[in-house]
Specification:
two-stranded antiparallel ribbon; five-stranded parallel beta sheet; alpha/beta
Length: 224
């Protein structure tokens, strides 16, 4: 059956591809959980550092540790070492990983089922600002692993920032996805919970929908 998109960002435009964000859209995300976890193991300045990846960054802030990690410009071991340097606390690797992944919450079966149904009507892609520790954690997680691996297989191609060495909202990553996937920007819809990412997607020619963070996707689609 042909699924219709209820919220059409550009009336009169057909849609043949959908690019989903991951955190805040397909998996619930709460950065404050990582802030609390780091503070509990002694990193009292983590909130200022993490705030730069919560949608409040400006051109003046420059690239911080987290941006570099998301762009794959530093490896996991160096990231952990930098965390120890910034915190001045001799944290163990597993403590850092546990705190860093605390922000990753649940994946709703309804969203996974919805993406599965959309495959018959659209080309589907995933575009996420993420990092090696988060993705490896999701793959092997006892409570999230099966869901995550099942979700990933539903997409024609997955674009993780640390693998393509670019991150949203840089327009280069949108242009890269459009070219690599052979998309027509004007008939491709991008769904993200970050307004700067939405604005950059529109600048690249994509249709875009600003999704309310950590809410279900069913209201976007007519599955009848």
């Amino acid at each position: 059956f042909m699924t219709k998109i209820r919220i059409n960002p550009l009336p009169g435009k057909n849609t043949d591809a959908i690019i989903f964000d991951l955190g805040g859209v397909l998996i619930n995300l709460d950065v404050t959980r990582s802030i609390d976890a780091f503070m509990n193991i002694g990193f009292t300045g983590i909130e200022e550092q993490l705030s730069k990846i919560m949608g409040r960054e400006t051109p003046e802030t420059g690239q911080n540790l987290f941006h570099l990690f998301e762009k794959g410009e530093i490896e996991s071991d160096l990231f952990r070492e930098k965390i120890r340097e910034l915190s001045r606390v001799p944290m163990r690797d597993e403590d850092i990983d546990r705190a860093w992944t605390a922000m990753l919450m649940d994946m709703h079966e309804e969203n996974i089922a919805l993406v599965g149904k959309l495959r018959s009507s659209y080309r589907l892609f995933l575009l996420s600002n993420t990092n090696e520790i988060h993705i490896e954690s999701l793959k092997v997680s006892k409570d999230k692993g099966k869901k995550f691996n099942r979700l990933i297989r539903l997409f024609e191609k997955v674009y993780f920032s640390h693998q393509v060495k670019m991150r949203k909202p840089d327009i280069d990553i949108f242009n890269y996805v459009i070219d690599d996937a052979g998309l027509i920007a004007e008939t491709s819809l991008f769904i993200d919970d970050s307004l700067p990412n939405i604005e950059a997607a529109k600048a690249s020619g994509l249709m875009a929908h600003h999704h309310v963070k950590n809410t279900g996707l069913e209201q976007l689609f007519d599955l009848s």
